[in-house]
Task: inverse folding
């Protein structure tokens, strides 16, 4: 009689962003619903940079949009920058970005500009959102992004980067730096091996194919099931 059995709910296959509440204070964003109770799930960028990983069609770009829009609803929204190596991105028109770059060359220019600004000192929280990050994981920009990621541990700068999970198994200075934070949103993961990339070990195996946006939020290796809103 003194114990309470927690209520277990079922994650929805479809979830609208309009159902999500505003995030808490700081660099927080509500990404969707999750956990045993199917409650709002926040990513807290105070925990470090965030990797959004998954195969094509798993909802990575949608997750970036949900996170960015939620950050605009905080009491003190951060300055948002967009890097999209493709010439077109659905994120470009989603909100009013402080900075945005479409195409690899423009991304390189913006990273150089942000690096100089960051070394001079940032006056406000800044979040760099990167889509299709595997396209920026080689060449000179790889090293520049690594230096920027390292600076983010000393100044108010965070990265939220979407990449194909398999790209994390190839050498990249920048992606290795982000992996070290063990903070990730894994969408449609391979439960036998993807969790090990972040120290989580084996993940629960789904009973049926997952819809787009379904996966786990990993904090310091601990997985929480989540359905990302769109």
Result:
């Amino acid at each position: 009689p003194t114990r309470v059995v927690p209520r277990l709910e079922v994650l929805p296959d479809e979830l609208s962003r309009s159902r999500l509440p505003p995030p808490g204070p700081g660099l927080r964003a509500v990404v969707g619903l999750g956990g045993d109770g199917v409650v709002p799930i926040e990513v807290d960028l105070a925990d470090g940079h965030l990797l959004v990983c998954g195969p094509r069609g798993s909802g990575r770009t949608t997750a970036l949009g949900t996170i960015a829009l939620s950050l605009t609803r905080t009491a003190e929204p951060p300055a948002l920058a967009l890097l999209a190596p493709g010439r077109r991105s659905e994120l470009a028109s989603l909100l009013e970005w402080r900075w945005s770059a479409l195409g690899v060359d423009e991304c390189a220019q913006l990273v150089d500009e942000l690096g100089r600004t960051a070394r001079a000192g940032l006056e406000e929280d800044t979040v760099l959102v990167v889509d299709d990050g595997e396209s920026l994981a080689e060449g000179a920009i790889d090293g520049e992004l690594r230096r920027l990621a390292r600076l983010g541990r000393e100044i108010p700068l965070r990265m939220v980067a979407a990449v194909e999970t398999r790209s994390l198994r190839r050498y990249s200075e920048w992606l290795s730096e982000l992996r070290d934070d063990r903070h990730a949103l894994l969408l449609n993961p391979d439960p036998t091996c993807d969790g090990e990339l972040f120290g989580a070990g084996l993940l629960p195996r789904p009973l049926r194919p997952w819809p787009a946006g379904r996966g786990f939020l990993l904090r310091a290796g601990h997985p929480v099931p989540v359905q990302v809103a769109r």
